[in-house]
Amino acid sequence: MKSVTLPSGEQVPAFGQGTWYMGDDRATRAEEIATLRLGLDLGCTLIDTAEMYGDGRAEELVAEAIAGRRHEVFLVSKVLPHHATRRGAVAACEKSLQRLKTDRIDLYLLHWRGNVPLAETMEALTALARAGKIRHYGVSNLDLTDMQELWPVAGGEGVAVNQLLYNLSRRGIEWDLLPWLRERRIPVMAYSPLEQGRLVKNAKFAAFARRHGMTPAQAALAWLLANDDVIVIPKCARRERLKENLGALAHSLTAAQRAELDRLFPPPAGPCPLEML
Ligand SMILES: NC(=O)c1ccc[n+]([C@@H]2O[C@H](COP(=O)([O-])OP(=O)(O)OC[C@H]3O[C@@H](n4cnc5c(N)ncnc54)[C@H](OP(=O)(O)O)[C@@H]3O)[C@@H](O)[C@H]2O)c1
């Protein structure tokens, strides 16, 4: 498995597994769990979840999927902005730990910025780290101005990642946020790397992928995986699809292929507000 290095020096898989909407439907539950387990077998040992997903149901499903295998997993979860206070974050983290049936979260993220001052959230996250409840902390959906505000705050320089909407059809971060993070060696965790499945259905993109011997999902993921500091976390609820998606790791795009994709999905021509889903 390709890996990405966190600022601490720890390496994590570049290909993780998303879980939004998992655990919502009893009919698909067994296959969702089987897919997450197959992912562990195949080296996708980073699992991304959040207290928000299904009001905790996704975390409970993850607990079931990783039962007996916790030591193999790099577990990522997120605190809702309105819980991200000095006391609220501690309570939210405790509940996540209970649902996840574990004593520690490997990476705990502020899900997006709300009204709680960043300094207070950092205080809570650093306290959770000191208490051993979380091993690393980070942020999600924070734009350049938020990152610039966060940096001088106590604990701000300790963020391990910024989890952002990033895929071929959402390239806005390439203008200024991605370079800023890169200068500080903070990896991007690219969420919705398949644009929630919409990229796969794009006819021109599908034709590009076919022409180059890939499926559209493989091409979309290979394009992101070409970066040494980008972690992809596609959500996949079917084993066959997971195997297909992992095929992306076998394709490194050529300069000509990348140029073709730049024509299909142009990079930003100027600053753009951060997009999120
Ligand atoms: N921090 C944030 O604010 C934030 C926001 C959004 C997402 N996330 C995280 O990022 C993860 C991934 O993002 P996402 O779930 O929004 O979208 P995504 O990973 O871009 O797309 C998931 C969709 O693509 C489908 N899919 C997967 N592999 C496919 C393939 N080979 N061919 C066709 N379709 C395929 C999935 O179907 P099946 O499920 O049926 O396989 C699912 O409907 C989330 O699950 C979550 O963990 C974080």
Please characterize this protein's 3D structure.
The protein is of the alpha/beta class and 277 residues long. Helix content is 37%, strand content 15%. It is built from 10 helices and 10 strands. It has helices spanning 26-41, 57-65, 88-100, 118-130, 144-150, 177-183, 203-211, 216-225, 239-246, 255-264, and strands at 3-5, 11-13, 17-18, 46-48, 74-79, 105-110, 134-140, 162-165, 188-191, 230-232. The strands form 2 sheets. Strands 3-4-5-6-7-8-9-10 form an 8-stranded parallel beta sheet, covered by helices on one side. A two-stranded antiparallel sheet has the order 1-2. Helix 1 links the parallel strand 3 and strand 4. Helix 1 (26-41) crosses helix 2, helix 3 crosses helix 4 (118-130) and helix 7 (203-211) packs across helix 8. The model has no long low-confidence stretch (mean pLDDT 98). The structure holds NADP nicotinamide-adenine-dinucleotide phosphate. The site of NADP nicotinamide-adenine-dinucleotide phosphate has 28 residues, from helix 9. NADP nicotinamide-adenine-dinucleotide phosphate binds next to helix 9.
